[in-house]
Predict the structure.
Amino acid sequence: MPDPSVIDAATRRRPGISAGGLPPLLLRTADAAAICGVAERTWRSWHATGKVPMPVHIGRTPLWAYAELQRWAAAGCPDRLSWQVLRN
């Protein structure tokens, strides 16, 4: 669960929490980084080097599944290749 004290300045809401108080199904880059406790720049670097799961893309927007990030973290945050093997 995201830290309730963290506020996304751009949207004035807690990252990873939808308007209804439930986690959204898909997270933008900033929210994925925030719920994992890292800066967006770090998340982008990890994505570029294959350290986080692959996002899905809607248009050109990368989106990470909230449930997948939870399972990935519970598995010890393996690199992308290892994660693909583990989840299959």
